[in-house]
Every structure is written in structure tokens, then in C-alpha cells.
């Protein structure tokens, strides 16, 4: 690349920043990550309800995870050169990493249901629906970062509420599980419930990253 070409590219990037295009591109990439995590949660719920066969779900989840990794890599590349971001870069990295962790734990959940899951997975349907609801609220919050930052906090609180719902369902299902006889199936269900609880925690971390970022922006 010649010096003139390099200067032209830097000027184009700066011009995009000034017009807000780069910020919207960042938002779109984060939303893309959230959408892929949601697709993973929907797939996991379909597996738990018996709509999708477990081995087929495992193969589909591998594809979703690959797309999620690509989306995160693209966001990281963009953040290397963009001059202006909607929120602090560090918080963007935290948000992106936490959403990626949500998808990773969903992948592990689907894989574990195929490897050693119990015959009946109905206990996982409601917690997974709460995860989907939380991801929907998180996407709403991210979408408002540029045009309506004052309302981001409300959407973040809705995400946190969904995370609390996952935690409550985890505790309730665990109590029901331990009220019965201790069998191998009990241990399998406990492991899968623990994985779902981890999904909820990572989603909560994503919400916290966005809330922290908006607090910094308001100062």
C-alpha cells in the first residue's frame, strides 16, 4: 500500500467515525453475536423439548458456534482501527466476551445432553426460555446505545431479571431433584442444571458490562 493509499484509508475511517457509521457497525456486530447466542439457546430448548434430535442438535450447534467465533473475531478486528466507539472499548470487549461465553456454555449443554443426558429433558425447557428472554432484552439494550442511551438501563434491568429467573429455576429444579432418590440420573440432571446456571451467570456478566459502560458514558 502506498503512502497516499494509507492516508486515504485513514481519512475514510475518520470520516465514517464522524458520521457515526463506525459506531453503528460496532452495534450491529454485537447484535449479531447476541443473535447467534439466541439461536444456540433456541436450539438447546428445541432439544430439551424433543423437537430436535440430540445428535443433530450437537452438529447444528457446532455450526452456530463457528459463526459466533467469526462474529467476535470481526468485532475485535474493527475495534483495532475504529476511532470512536459507542461505549468504552474495554467494556465492549467484556460484553462481547460474555456473550461468547453464553454461546460456549450452551454448546457444552447440548453436547452433554447427547453424551450423558437423561431421557427426559423437560426440566431444561423453562430455564432455556428465560435465557432466550434475557438475550432478547440484551439485544434491545444494545440497539439503543446510540439513539436512545437513556433507556438502555431499563432493558439491562430486564436482562438481569431474566438471569434471576434462570437462577431461581435452577434452585427449584435442584431442590426437586434432591427430594427424590439419589441415582445416576440424578447426577446427570444436576450437571445439566449447573451448566444452565452458568449460562445465566454469563448472561448476567454481559448485562453488567453494558450497565458499567453506560454509567461511564453518563459521567
TrEMBL record:
Report what the protein is called: DUF47 domain-containing protein
Which family does the entry's similarity section mention? Answer: Belongs to the UPF0111 family.
Q: Which domain of life is it from?
A: Bacteria
InterPro entries, sorted: PhoU-like_sf, Put_Phosphate_transp_reg, UPF0111_domain
**Source organism:** Streptosporangium fragile
The record's listing under Pfam families reads: PhoU_div
